[in-house]
């Protein structure tokens, strides 16, 4: 699956901010003290484990912001499976600059590859069921574009990016509006014809009201497997059904086998472990 690139301005801004945080007011005093100003070196980004790589854009941006003339040769692309010991990219340039960029490049790559690899585990577990694995908005503030690209790199499906993507009526919206029917009808009256309306329900008896009111998608929150199967039978394909809540690698296969269309997993972005990538001089 092709991985959509992140808009360049977002990458530039995020990397600039990260480098400024790391450099402080004095720059990399270690590199300045130890490395001759004109010294050049060749380094290799190397995977320390098996998994799915992601993070090439911000990794290279960190290198080029510190050394615009650095020569980089990528040997892996976002979404590619890598093995322990695989070279992800080689880079030749000013040694001071490359060492100053090292940690920021590795932080982006490690975080994003961790999410991509974790997502791939979920995707593999539900393979053959027809269910898709999707992210949520439980992302690191300011880092959402990178984390969602990593989900896609791992084979996950894109959910809504933010509050302006689609109408998703949650339990508190329902409570304030006075019920599922009232909330969905108000949303349908307000939304343009291109805007999907989804509603979250936490009881099986709310499903008919959601469908009758015109929701295109229904999020089944913390349903038991029995109730998920009943909801699939009741909906009869009239709406997209999404399951959420209580999803982990041990439970996701059973949820997928109920026949739901989508399983949203907050853990993809809030609980993915870091992926170990190193920078080796060669």
State the fourth-level CATH superfamily of the largest domain.
Aldolase class I
Number of beta strands: 12
Order of helices and strands: HHEEHEEEHEHEHHEHEHEHEHE
Shape descriptor: elongated
Terminal Cα span: 33 Å
Reported for the largest beta sheet, the result is: 6 strands, parallel
**The level-1 CATH class of the largest domain:** Alpha Beta
Predict the CATH topology of the largest domain. Answer: TIM Barrel
**Major β-sheet strand ordering:** 6-11-10-9-8-7
Q: Per DSSP, what share of the residues sits in E-state strands of 2 or more residues?
A: 15-25%
Helices, by number, come to 11
What is the mean pLDDT? 96
Radius of gyration (Å): 23 Å
In the CATH classification, which architecture of the largest domain applies? Alpha-Beta Barrel
Low-confidence stretches: none
Instruction: Indicate the structural class.
Output: alpha/beta
Q: What does the oligomeric state look like here?
A: single chain
Number of domains: 2
What is the helix content?
Answer: 40-55%
What does this structure look like?
Helices cover 42% and strands 19% of the residues. By secondary structure, the protein is an alpha/beta fold. Strand 9 (217-221), helix 9 (225-235) and strand 10 (240-244) form a beta-alpha-beta unit. It starts with 7 loop residues before the first helix and ends with a strand. The model has no long low-confidence stretch (mean pLDDT 96).
What's the quick description here?
With 282 residues, the chain is an alpha/beta fold.
């Amino acid at each position: 699956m092709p991985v959509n690139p992140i808009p360049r301005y977002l990458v530039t801004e995020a990397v600039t901010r990260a480098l400024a945080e790391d450099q402080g007011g004095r720059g990399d005093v270690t590199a300045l003290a130890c490395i001759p100003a004109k010294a050049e070196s060749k380094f290799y980004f190397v995977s320390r484990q098996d998994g799915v790589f992601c993070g090439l854009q911000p990794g290279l941006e960190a290198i080029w912001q510190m050394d615009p003339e650095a020569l980089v040769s990528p040997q892996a692309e976002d979404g590619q499976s890598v093995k322990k010991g695989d070279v992800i990219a080689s880079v030749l340039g000013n040694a001071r600059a490359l060492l100053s960029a090292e940690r920021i490049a590795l932080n982006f790559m490690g975080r994003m590859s961790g999410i991509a690899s974790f997502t791939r585990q979920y995707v593999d577990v539900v393979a053959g069921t027809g269910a898709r694995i999707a992210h949520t908005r439980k992302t690191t503030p300011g880092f959402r574009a990178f984390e969602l690209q990593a989900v896609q790199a791992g084979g996950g499906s894109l959910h809504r990016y933010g509050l302006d993507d689609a109408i998703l009526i949650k339990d508190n919206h329902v409570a304030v509006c006075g019920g599922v029917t009232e909330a969905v009808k108000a949303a349908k009256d307000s939304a343009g014809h291109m805007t999907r309306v989804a509603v979250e329900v936490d009881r099986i008896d709310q499903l008919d009201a959601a469908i009758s009111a015109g929701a295109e998608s229904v999020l089944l929150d913390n349903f038991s497997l029995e109730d998920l199967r009943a909801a699939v039978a009741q909906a009869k394909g009239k709406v997209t059904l999404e399951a959420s809540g209580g999803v982990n690698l041990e439970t996701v296969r059973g949820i997928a086998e109920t026949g739901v269309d989508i399983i949203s997993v907050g853990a993809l972005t809030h609980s993915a472990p870091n992926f170990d990538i190193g920078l080796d001089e060669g």
